[in-house]
Amino acid sequence: MPDALKPRTDAEVLEAVRWAIAEEKTLEVVGRGSKRAIGRAAQTDLTLDVSALSGVTLYEPEELVLSAQAGTPIAEIEKLLAVSNQELAFEPVDLGPLLGGKAGAGSLGGVVATNLSGPRRIKAGAVRDHALGVAAVSGRGEAFKGGGRVVKNVTGYDLPRFLTGSWGTLAVATSWTLKVLPAAEDVATLLVLGLDDARAGEAMRAVMNTAADVSAAAHFPAKVAARLGVPGGGKSVTALRLEGVSPSIAYRREKLTEMLKPLGALADLGAEDSCALWRTVRDAKPFADGSARAVWRISVPPTLGPAVGTALAALGADVFYDWAGGLIWAEMKDDAPREAEVRAALGNAGHAMLVRASVSARASAASFAPLEPGLAALVKRLKESFDPRGILNPGRMYAGM
């Protein structure tokens, strides 16, 4: 028996899972492997590689819906959508370079399984908010489908949203149906220079409470801002993205300029530079430096972002903020994750995920936020319901599950 199973059809996925159940073998479920280094190191008998399940099976631009097999490269899907001036509005994150791999290598299945959303999450929602339908095989060896091709299509459990973010621990998804949206006609970014973290947090929250319809807000302390390649003059950079039709952008930019000019020097980015900047934010490229330094992705209430970031900086970490302060990327000073100190800085305020770390660190540190007892019991029951033998990505998220 080879070390990897590579099914080419849904029927072969079902056959592979049923064989694993019968033979009491555990499976590491992977697509194209771009996020394989996140989570606890796999201790499985075989790899179930679904990358051969590839191709768009339905695309109806006028209905704003797309279906594709789980192994379809996300870059291929985005290229197809661009022809009709449409997009995946949640901005799928590409962590390949951060994890030492290639850009554009991720699959649709990996995007949905991890539920990692980009800067537009604060406006358009997370990946799970765009998942309409799924076809999958459970750890019981049962093929099932959930959802459909429209938003309001659920009676009973919303299985597409339920499986989104489960990291392949409950079922092997073979195809997904997603909502797509029109892409903006134009984009621009307003930069505020020289704000400290606390003032930047206040400014981003104030802007988000206006009618300016800002679609992304991020802040880079001076040390990280120097890696961006945007105007900054050695100062910190607070970036605010405006999307839409050109006249609307011009009007909203003028209103924001009036609001923000008392805070510090301002600069503008046009469409091309804006797109490059927000890809950098989306993919945490300031930390895709080829180093082995540990990297955390931390979600907190935006009001607490600057305080948590300051505490992380006191540990020697470099940080920057997305989601108007609600998402913090932190690169530690060396390869030690310092999990206890990072989680102490959070308190009960948020969730921290260890994104980049050595195999030994991943084995000893909790990559995902520890669960309180009641929630842990619920998650365990769900795992037992979908995968009673524990054959699918066992221990990937939590030890013993």
Write the layout of secondary structure elements.
Elements: E1 4-5, H1 10-23, E2 27-30, E3 46-49, E4 56-60, E5 65-69, H2 74-83, E6 86-87, H3 108-114, H4 121-124, E7 131-138, E8 143-147, H5 159-163, E9 171-179, E10 181-182, E11 186-193, H6 197-208, E12 214-220, H7 222-225, E13 237-244, H8 246-260, E14 266-269, H9 271-282, E15 295-299, H10 305-314, E16 318-322, E17 327-331, H11 339-346, E18 351-356, H12 359-364, H13 373-386
Parallel strand pairs: 1-3, 2-3
Antiparallel strand pairs: 4-5, 5-9, 6-10, 7-8, 7-9, 11-13, 11-14, 12-13, 15-17, 15-18, 16-17
Description of the molecule:
Helix 6 runs antiparallel to helix 10. The protein has 401 residues and is α+β, with helices and mostly antiparallel strands. The radius of gyration is 21 Å and the shape is globular. It has 3 domains: 214 residues, Uridine Diphospho-n-acetylenolpyruvylglucosamine Reductase, domain 3 (2-Layer Sandwich), CATH 3.30.465; 97 residues, 2-Layer Sandwich (Alpha-Beta Plaits); 80 residues, Alpha-Beta Plaits, CATH 3.30.70.240. The chain is built from 13 helices and 18 strands. It has a 5-stranded antiparallel β-sheet with strand order 4-5-9-7-8. The chain has a 4-stranded antiparallel β-sheet with strand order 12-13-11-14.
Strand order of the largest sheet: 4-5-9-7-8
Assembly state here? single chain
So what's the overall shape?
A: globular
Radius of gyration: 21 Å
Q: Return the structural class.
A: alpha+beta
Into which percent range does the helicity of residues fall? Answer: 25-40%
CATH-level-2 architecture of the largest domain: 2-Layer Sandwich
Mean pLDDT: 94
Instruction: Give the N-to-C terminal Cα separation.
Output: 26 Å
Query: What amount of the residues lies in strands?
Result: 15-25%
Q: Which residues form runs of ≥5 with pLDDT under 50? A: none
CATH domain topology of the largest domain: Uridine Diphospho-n-acetylenolpyruvylglucosamine Reductase, domain 3
Query: How does the major sheet shape up?
Result: 5 strands, antiparallel
Q: Compute the number of strand runs.
A: 18
